[in-house]
Amino acid sequence: MTGASEPQPQPQPQPQPLPQREHPASDGATPRSPFVTWPRPPGIVERVLQPIPLRAGVTLRLLRTDDAEQLAEAYSRNRRYLEPWEPARSEAFFTKTWQAAQIPSLLETVAAGTGLPLVLATDTQIIGRVTLAGITRGVLQSGGMGYWIDEAFAGHGIMSEAVAQVIRVATDDLRLHRIQAETLLHNQGSQKVLEHNGFERIGLAPKYIKIAGRWQDHILFQRILHDD
Ligand SMILES: CC(C)(COP(=O)(O)OP(=O)(O)OC[C@H]1O[C@@H](n2cnc3c(N)ncnc32)[C@H](O)[C@@H]1OP(=O)(O)O)[C@@H](O)C(=O)NCCC(=O)NCCS
Fold first, then answer.
1. If you take atom 20 of ligand 1, which residue's CA is the nearest one?
2. What is the dotted CATH code of the domain comprising 44-178?
3. Most exposed residue of 23, 141, 177, 201, measured as fewest CB within 10 angstroms of its CB?
């Protein structure tokens, strides 16, 4: 006779196969690319790469191999203005040669599906950048966004409009789930741009990015694009 309080014989656990650990960056497909790892709509590459007209004669378009000179000029014009908000730059950074050397690897991120390097341009000059970088597929489907605009063009709503377009491309074309961005605690202009575009504050990251030569605290923002 067995009482309720008596221990019942338990079935012996059968050895189970260990679950396959998957890096969040991996969705099991190679190579990782938004253009190959999800069922892409026809013409998507062409659509993502089309220039997008913004206000005030400014266009948002993909970085090109012949942008080096104008990039060097834009960074030189805005050297002092950008200094508090960007990583410390070497003298070489402000040259056409240095910029030209970076462009091929940035464009490779487009082909690999890990980035989307965009510029803001007028008919005659580059006046800013917006970059999606570190796009990770698998169970994250997320990318990080950074941006700056020429001082002469700031305060006219151009970056808010550009970020809105990046969100549209990331949602409809890249089919990301989420974009992350971060700002220094006192970068109220950048925080406004994000808030205008539905980003929410998700936390504070101490000593997160080395800006102007110092590891500085940042406010983290995210925008959820869709839950599919
Ligand atoms: C931040 C930055 C990208 C904003 O670009 P922009 O084209 O001027 O942005 P918008 O005009 O779309 O919007 C800026 C908003 O911030 C506000 N703003 C700008 N500077 C501000 C400040 N110092 N304090 C409070 N609000 C400020 C503007 O009034 C505007 O708000 P509104 O639309 O409600 O009037 C630009 O100032 C810049 O490139 N700064 C230097 C680099 C940088 O900070 N990059 C981002 C790093 S996270």
1. 189
2. 3.40.630.30
3. 23
Tokens of 212: 């102007």
Q: How does pLDDT run across 196-207, given as a tens digit for each residue?
A: 999 999 999 999
Model's pTM, two decimal places?
0.85
Q: Ligand 1: residues within 6 Å at CB?
A: 82, 85, 147-149, 154-160, 183, 187-190, 192-193
Q: What residue segments make up the domains of the chain, in order of their start?
A: 44-178
Which residue has a Cα nearest atom 43 of ligand 1?
Answer: 148
Secondary structure in 3-state letters for 85-105: HCCCCCHHHHCHHHHHHHHHH
Atom index in ligand 1 nearest the CA of residue 156 equals 11
User: 110 C-alpha vs ligand 1 centroid, how far in Å?
Assistant: 27
Q: How far apart are the C-alpha atoms of 28 and 168, rounded to whole Å? A: 27
